[in-house]
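Hey L., structure's done. Input below.
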Amino acid sequence: MAGKYWHNRLNRALSMLVSLALAFFLWLALAGRDTSIFDLTVPLELAGLPADLAIKTEVPASVTIQVMANTAQGRFLADRRLNMQLDVSTAKEGPNAFPFAEDALELPRGVQLNKIVPSMIEFEAVKLIDKMVPVKAATSGRLSAAYRLKAVTVEPDRVRLRGPAEMLGKITEAPTAPIALDGITQSQTMMVSLADGSLPAGLEIIPKELRVVVVLEDVLEKASFPGVPVTVDRASPADGSRVRVAPEKVKISVAWPVSKVRGVAPEDITAQVYVDEEKLRREGKLTLQIIVVPPEGVTVTAIEPPNAAVTYLPPPANGEGSSPSGRTAH
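Output:
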């Protein structure tokens, strides 16, 4: 009984499989009869173009393919992202023509390719060359009145351009995008690119970003003050001796950055000579450098004359003070 049961089960299973197979083949036969012509737009990609060539003329971005397929296959192809790739690795300088091969597209089995429009891609290729050109730094805006633009340097100072010879022939320099100077109060380093539209489109530029160093310097105010008194740095001697300094007054020239110092008056400046008392007593007269002490931020640019003569005047023999000619100091 059990054997007969399993025998009947097996027969029913086989019958079901045969029925499914017959239904599948019948569907294929019916589907094959529903054949139509489909036009599909497929993106075009040129592959393998030699590195020393560029395409000068316009090339279509896509092609139209016409295929024969049943409805199911047509829907499948319409939903699928097809891509037409054309090998142009053998292209040469000048006119080129590349027909499409029959197997340019990998189509599903049973789909027939009728035609490709256009059937051939034609273009003109030009030779690419390299050219080194200097970079020109371009600036915009103005610095404040307290600063002056000392230098603008670009690193590197030359860029390599790659493109057709006829395009590169007239290019003599590559300007940067404008470097804004408004509001700058100190030297700065920044990255910039070349100016938009300054070079023909399609050129390869190496490098694309450049390092720019903007160097500022302070605007200086200058002044000269004649008649600045010269003082002697000398401790008051116990014996009552004195010294005489000549000249008594000198001319001092100074300069200061207007961004840091508002102004300088004569009384802001002192001029001194520093005396070695023992050497002065021994030699009687010394020629010493005049030292000027300016306010903070102010630079001394000239001292006229730069030196002063200091003469030792011993105390009077009778113990009374004397009034020799010339400026004296303790």
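The first helix runs from residue 2 to 33. The longest strand covers residues 120-136.

-- N.
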